[in-house]
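Anyone else keep sequences and structure tokens together like this?

Example one:
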Amino acid sequence: MRPQQHRTLNRVLAALTIVVSLALALVLFLGDRERAAPPQPAPQTQCGQPALAYDGGHPFTADQARDVAGVHAAACAGDYAALAPFIRSVPQTNLPTLPSATTMVEEWRSNDPTGVKLRAVASVLEQPGIGHQGGLSFCHPSKGHVAFSRGTIDMPPGLGGFEFPRQGQPLDCFFL
């Protein structure tokens, strides 16, 4: 091959290498943007009214009704941050191993970034409540269980947590 042909071939190969590299960089950039996009929230659903009475018809106390209505509104809106004021918070000096309300909300959000489980919570809170020694519970076998603690001398009352059916197995609401 002549030197002129070598130069032409080198230029073509260099140009081809640049084009392939730019195309690869563009594909990787666009792929990262799609993966880094925040999850889209679940579509807003129509929520009913929260239950404000026990399954026997006896109304909740004003504090219980306020908490249930507030958690229902936050759950219906898919707003995890709005749950924080309803979570029982204990001074870390009393129970240093109990996570703060903010930590609990962040953990719940990371496990359900689209808020689908929150919509289930809203639906469960539309069922009559069940009173027991530990506080107030709401349960629907296929949607989940929501518990409000009654509080103790060391712990104020508030939202205790959620439980959801696992692997399609319904919850046993009778024993909760």
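And example two:
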Amino acid sequence: MEENTVKSFKLYNEPVLADLQTRIEEVEGRARERTLQATDLLRFATRVEATFTALGIPLAARVGAVVEVSGMTNRVANSYRGVPYATEARLQRNTRGWLVTDIDRAPGRAFADGYRITLANVDPQGLLNSILTSQRITLECHRGAAGRLG
């Protein structure tokens, strides 16, 4: 990691966002393309939290979730010479909310919708069962019914 890496900012209130924006600008230096704003990080954290709620993912399963955000939202033209750098951030969910654990200027990675979610330390089967239960969905499997039409 570079020396400009930012550690541990909680996305809770306006003074923190203002301080975080100052630190992001320090990391970005003179860059004006493929950059991020503190409000972008708050927006992504809010969107991911809403997605978790809509899917019925329990709070216990959200702890440790990681969201990687990139200022590079689309591909760069083939005529671009060199490696395009972008501001990238890493947010991690703890028991109280989202924490910005890393901000760096690195060779850009384009994520669909600008971010990627990783659920860490989660049993996939247990999570699926929890989501199905919270949404009151029941799955039934019938043997011999596959391939038959009515």
